[in-house]
Design goal:
alpha/beta; Rossmann fold; 6-stranded mixed sheet; 7 helices; about 15% strand; signal; VWA domain-containing protein
């Protein structure tokens, strides 16, 4: 069933169409279609609340970063995953969206894509609300592993926007700045996570785009340095994926 916004757009497009073949080719399906696979993760932990001390305002960051991310990367599909205390088993979910779906040749494809991006933002907000109300926590690793199920086959790129401060906190591992300040302590923590099978399974064609990353340490450069080194070593060296701060904010 079509989203109401999409139905309204298609009805308006049908009324405005001239029926001329040239216009149909210019506006409709005879255009390059998007192909990029994307995903968004939303952090339902307390630090994502707007009034939280040392918080990162998760919904505000989502509202700004997600539309830009979807446009810039020309995302065709968008998968969703919640960040909760136990992300892998969370009952919060949204179905993967096609953001550049088949349509009539008289539909304005750019406008249609924009409507589906609005739908995507609405669904990401709903997922964030669910994550905040069911087992709030910050299992970033579990969410990354969960969304890996939506990664494309083969060597195709996979882009993941992660709206989180990356303060990993679940039932078995809680990230503290003092435990990752030295290379030795970071290696020990990473070895333990790897032995427990906690490192996310993602293809090497994945790029993670954090929004809200490390904001708890905005006034503590020394603590941030260890935190940043931990995640860099985990994602880039152990999991072997790329990290981009284009949507950091």
């Amino acid at each position: 069933m079509r989203h109401p916004l999409v139905a309204a757009l298609l009805a308006a497009a049908a009324l405005a169409a001239t029926g001329c073949d040239q216009l149909g080719q210019a506006l409709g399906t005879d255009v390059d279609r998007y192909t990029t696979a994307c995903a968004v993760l939303v952090d339902g932990s307390g630090s994502g609340q707007e009034d939280a001390a040392h918080g990162f305002a998760a919904e505000e960051k989502l509202n700004v970063a997600l539309p830009e991310f979807l446009r810039d990367l020309e995302c065709r599909t968008l998968a969703f995953a919640p960040i909760t205390r136990a992300s892998a088993g969370s009952t919060c979910q949204q179905e993967t969206l096609d953001l550049d779906p088949d349509a009539r040749s008289t539909d304005d494809r750019d406008q249609l894509r924009e409507v589906w991006r609005s739908v995507a933002l609405d669904q990401a907000r709903e997922l964030l609300s669910c994550a905040r109300n069911r087992q709030p926590g910050s299992d970033v690793l579990g969410a990354l592993d969960r969304v890996g199920q939506a990664a494309p086959d083969g060597a195709e790129a996979f882009h993941i926007l992660v709206v989180s401060d990356f303060m990993q906190a679940d039932g078995s591992f809680q990230l503290h700045a003092d435990q990752v300040q030295t290379p030795e302590s970071r290696a020990g923590a990473l070895d333990t996570l790897e032995a427990q099978g906690r490192l996310p399974r993602l293809p090497e064609t994945t790029t993670v785009y954090p929004a809200g990353y490390g904001m708890r340490f905005s006034d503590d450069p020394a603590a941030y340095e260890g935190f940043d080194a931990f995640w860099s070593e985990l994602l880039e060296e152990r999991v072997k994926i790329d990290v981009s701060f284009d949507y950091r904010q």
